[in-house]
């Protein structure tokens, strides 16, 4: 399993990277952690002729509190999501999801930006962007823009990032004192892609749900929010009846596909079970 | 576990001790030498163009563009290699009526499985070979693929090898008689249809081979990741027409095998021919994706089985129909029939019933070839038997331990035979059953299970009895005409400085063969084992023998080492006696010293005997010829197999909402005769159990309707990993075999034999309150949810 | 496109400067270019863990990066860790407990063990298994490996000098 030949460039700024991409007559690809790209090249599923190594662009690193937002550089590694105190404090859903992302050695190299830009529907972090209401900062030759997560995931492996553009940072609204969150996934083995997974982030007034975001992964071509479920729960007291109603409504929001391993009905069933368990964790203790 | 030697121990008493492996240190330092590491001067690399179709005629092959790619040194097709290599047929005479089409390294007319290698590209690097392989254009004429074991046997369905008439490789029946009467009158009949997933070995090191043909000698040297260099020396010599004495096969460190690396693979045979065509070394390493579509598969069985019992739960008879799907031809030289043969002969083996009927059909499929993989057939036979026993228990309201207590062959009933003709020397089912019950604290687990059920927590406990075939004699392969040795040989010598050098024909795969041979030699010779060096795996440096498979290393290889050591000791004592002017039987060897047998007083050091023998033969009495090197062979001649037995138990927790199972704990009580190194034996058992649990919960090769392997990658074929696997407690009963002085039987496959049976029984135990049951492995969450009626 | 790029890196404490083809993985470069065959390749797609090395202080899959990406980096392989005795106590515990059989996964497992044991605290058996979640072993069934790592963690906690010496 050896990749086809390619050329290699290592820019040190975002501008240089964008120029390298635009200036390449041949098919180019950015590489950051490479944990998903390198196997694709080895399997010859992809064969760019130029690999632009963006892993050394300083402006894409760093985690910084900016008022009501936490700015997370796209090159932040998965392992940092596990250990960084600012993430733990202000974007805890990322900290919850991180232990489930692949394995320690992958987490030591793979980047949050890479995961979100690839938008594998079975991955944890893209779905957490939805759950947290994050905004994705994209740099192109025309300038920089921020895209809300709800508008970011378009189709299978297709996001708001246009060819040649770079995801440079992730902006997460910081959680407040009334926020509660929960994450879980069902995977055959630790670190496997989940059969189904979910993260929920709610703002609670006692036991009343002031607002709630629910995101699911491995349920379709893109990570998805369960809007009907959210509608049912918003303004309600979070109790067993509400949870049961939410579970029943999940079929309105999710239509998972059949595949050779898992029938759609199983995925939906497991998503329902998971939703019930996560909402249960959000319930204010009596 | 590893008790230090005390003054009360006889010096050098290593047998029975958990000593660490001398050859593991370099592996821990990253200094292993695997075939994947080997680099030879002017070595080239092979890649293969593979068929995407499961069944197709080869219309044309265009290699012009590929030939022009940088670094390409040779492109070879089936026709090129057919000129050098004679075809092989994977049949054995003792499987009457067995049939299989001849095979060549690369196909000439058609491809018969998706992933079959069609064209070989040899280049300066593997990457360059793969670049060129992308430009080989093969025109195929697709044929209908045979992918279903029932459809394959329907008249009118496509026949893979028309010259054979149908798609049945082998059909055999066993019938003791009396079965129909028993079933007609039995108080209880239980039955089920069992489905077993197709498995593959997934060794850490993939298959690897470096063939180095030098026409000027002539000499073929093959560095081959194989369990059995001797078999391949013979095969390469015969099929490529090279004198046997000019063929050397070296098996260096092997990164796992479990039986998979025993078999002939088309690509591996091709590589020999490629080296001959080029006159340069050629290396081929199967990458992981290739491994899935070319390594042998195993265990693809559908078994319909019935068990009859009387009102008291005494098992009276079994009636079994086993249909197994193999590849498009039988594997060579060990066939694709042995597994099925063992399945239908091992059914019910631990139990005393004597009436049995079975029908085995081995059916060709357009899928990857199939052959022996760890615990050949045992898991299937054990799972079917043990599940039916649990069903009888449920019917008769007997506890699972009690039903077995009632039916296992009594420990004093030996020797006896199974209804399928297996002869048992001495087994210990009841002793193992009792030991298991105690060690797992069964009663406590049942009480806990009942209590937790009231809280909606569903635990399951399952047990399984098993019998295992080890130490096979020539009845296994030799009688069928295969040049696979059932005997072993060793050359043992005292070196000039008094060290001991042992070359022996059993092989090391990481299980510890070299270590236990060293223990046996050191003990029976009387030296510190640190001074014993064991050499294996090279046809040039060791006698011809059976190598390691079917758990023969300890029992047969160990006995060979023991007898050879005794012979050498006699020679040493003979020289020592001459030097000391003593009677040889008044002397012994302890810790590298010749001593007075009665008083243990040291008389002369072994190294001194060696010095005299090698350098001062002038000081020996006239007529004394010191023989400090001996060669000796041992062929098993008692029972055709040394059967072992044991019990396993599995404890799980079922999440009834998601169908996910957590394996809490597993236990094994094993009787493998004399245990030479408890730590190594226990680790073999643990590794085997985890492979069995992988089969029970995770592993299966999934095929699409067109015969494509759908999940042929390490991300999709799920092998067991650390988080999902339990701690495994192991205990032993030791019933020696009287066939050898050593008394050891084999153990390498025992863990795998019954682990999935115990697991299936455990899951069914957890499902019982829901009125649900499974008779298929792997027990995936989807299958469990279906059984529970959630979907 | 078949041009070699001169790459400088430090491998096992030695400065290395080589012309490397961009498509060559770090694993292949270490094994073939530098003949450090202690790092193994079992899948070439980052699933089995046989290829783990230390890169700039963290354990990563060497099959999941191209050698050119490691330009300017510090790499340590099993040979390096072994030769400077950084994992001597781990290797000894593995040897005593027979926490390896064929040895092909062992280099990667030792890397994971080294990484885990370099963190403060004594991991539980579950935590050890979790740390091993990316290391495939087909021979041992994992329990002996967990035992060996557990023993080292306890020994290091009992004698802090060992822990300091190997860092």
How far apart lie the N and C ends of chain C?
41 Å
CATH topology of the largest domain in chain C: DNA polymerase, domain 1
- Largest sheet entry of chain B: 7 strands, mixed
Mean pLDDT of chain B: 96
Number of strands of chain B: 31
Question: How would you describe this protein?
Answer:
The complex is a heterotrimer of chains A (286), B (791) and C (167). By secondary structure, chain A is of the alpha+beta class. Chain A has 12 helices and 14 strands. Chain A has a 5-stranded antiparallel β-sheet. Chain A has a 4-stranded antiparallel β-sheet with strand order 11-12-13-14, with helices on both faces. In chain A, strands 1-3-2 form a 3-stranded parallel β-sheet, with helices on one face. Chain A starts with 6 loop residues before the first strand and ends with a helix. The mean pLDDT of chain A is 96. Chain B is an alpha+beta fold. Chain B folds into 3 domains: 7-32 and 487-634, 2-Layer Sandwich (Aldehyde Oxidoreductase, domain 4), CATH 3.30.365.10; 35-143 and 202-294, Alpha-Beta Complex (Aldehyde Oxidoreductase, domain 3); 378-468 and 643-787, Aldehyde oxidase/xanthine dehydrogenase, molybdopterin binding domain (Aldehyde Oxidoreductase, domain 4). In chain B, strands 3-5-1-13-10-11-12 form a 7-stranded mixed β-sheet, sandwiched between helices. A 6-stranded mixed β-sheet of chain B has the order 7-17-16-15-8-31, sandwiched between helices. In chain B, strands 20-28-29-30 form a 4-stranded mixed β-sheet, sandwiched between helices. In chain B, β15 and β16 (315-325) form a beta hairpin. The mean pLDDT of chain B is 96. Chain C has 167 residues and is an alpha+beta fold. Helices cover 40% and strands 15% of the residues of chain C. Chain C has a 5-stranded mixed β-sheet. Chains B and C meet through α1 and α17 of B and α2, α3, α4, α5 and α6 of C.
Overview features:
heterotrimer, B: 791 residues, alpha+beta, Aldehyde Oxidoreductase, domain 4, Aldehyde Oxidoreductase, domain 3, 3 domains, 7-stranded mixed beta sheet, globular, C: 167 residues, Ubiquitin-like (UB roll), DNA polymerase, domain 1, 5-stranded mixed beta sheet, 15% strand
Q: Secondary-structure map with pairings?
A:
The complex is a heterotrimer of chains A (286), B (791) and C (167).
Chain A: E1 7-9, H1 14-22, E2 28-31, H2 37-42, E3 50-53, E4 63-66, E5 69-73, H3 78-83, H4 85-90, H5 92-97, H6 104-107, H7 112-118, H8 124-132, E6 135-140, E7 143-148, H9 149-152, E8 153-155, E9 158-159, E10 166-173, E11 179-186, E12 196-205, E13 208-217, E14 224-225, H10 227-233, H11 240-253, H12 264-282
Parallel strand pairs in A: 1-3, 2-3
Antiparallel strand pairs in A: 4-5, 5-10, 6-7, 6-10, 8-9, 11-12, 12-13, 13-14
Helix pairs in contact in A: 10-11, 11-12
Chain B: H1 24-28, E1 44-50, E2 56-62, H2 64-67, E3 72-76, H3 78-82, E4 110-111, E5 117-123, H4 126-133, E6 137-142, E7 168-175, H5 179-185, E8 188-196, E9 199-200, E10 208-214, E11 219-224, H6 229-240, E12 247-250, H7 266-278, E13 282-285, H8 288-294, E14 297-298, E15 301-309, E16 315-325, H9 338-346, E17 355-363, H10 378-395, H11 400-407, E18 416-417, E19 423-424, H12 429-439, H13 442-453, E20 458-470, E21 488-494, E22 500-504, H14 513-525, E23 532-535, H15 553-580, E24 587-590, E25 593-596, E26 602-605, H16 606-615, E27 629-634, E28 642-655, E29 660-671, H17 678-697, E30 727-732, H18 750-767, E31 776-777, H19 781-788
Parallel strand pairs in B: 1-13, 8-31, 11-12, 16-17, 22-23, 29-30
Antiparallel strand pairs in B: 1-5, 2-4, 2-6, 3-5, 7-17, 8-15, 9-14, 10-11, 10-13, 15-16, 18-19, 20-28, 21-22, 21-27, 24-25, 25-26, 28-29
Helix pairs in contact in B: 9-10, 10-11, 10-18, 14-15, 17-18
Chain C: E1 5-11, E2 14-20, H1 26-33, E3 52-55, E4 58-61, E5 74-76, H2 78-83, H3 88-97, H4 106-117, H5 125-131, H6 143-158, H7 160-166
Parallel strand pairs in C: 1-5
Antiparallel strand pairs in C: 1-2, 3-4, 3-5
